[in-house]
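A common beginner's mistake is to predict each chain separately and then try to dock the pieces by hand. The better habit, illustrated here, is to supply every component at once so that their relative placement is modeled jointly.
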Amino acid sequence: MTAIDAASVARAYWETAEARAWKAFGELLADDVLYECPQTRERVRGREAYVRFNREFPGDWHVSIERIVAGDDRAVTWTSFRTGSGTETGIAFLDLDATGKISRITDFWPEPYEPPTNRAHLVERY
Amino acid sequence: MTAIDAASVARAYWETAEARAWKAFGELLADDVLYECPQTRERVRGREAYVRFNREFPGDWHVSIERIVAGDDRAVTWTSFRTGSGTETGIAFLDLDATGKISRITDFWPEPYEPPTNRAHLVERY
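With all components supplied together, the output reads:
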């Protein structure tokens, strides 16, 4: 895999999800794809379960790509995930196997929070 | 910049921070480096202020690199940030300028949270 290929796979992953093109989405995945969300300790194993996880994911969501960084057999995506209740930021680490299929997805959803006051003198707010 | 160079700069960024080697850390940065944390809307502008932000960052912290994904003039780092009160996950997007200096840092700190129950049938927990 080249970096360009890994970026293309990452882009297709989100574009097929947004299009609800679940057959094409599934074709990007390895049979034994492993999905993990370290923040919630949720895990999904295997292509069928992972396509279902996305297909049945609750709500009227839309996703757009903010940035892709890709190198060799890995990519990271920064996305905006919009639902009726607002927009969240998603960051996904995608690992590709030797055939270019996505074999592992590690998903992060950083939420807004109030910064500690003990570093307030070192920053501005925007 | 090649992907290997961007990865090396990203690695040096965290290694010099961990070593409190602030002169070497600062030499990795562009004069007008811009740091932003979208979750807190904190911002730091310029090398001097950004070195100070790190040098004076409260607490006895230690950082180790879990993963670097780098391509062209960009890198993403996944780190573990340990303090007396536990270990946090950090994800930083680093943009390099044409001379290989870090010109922009976008920093995310995803925290643990409880997943919505409406997708519980689609996942296992670990």
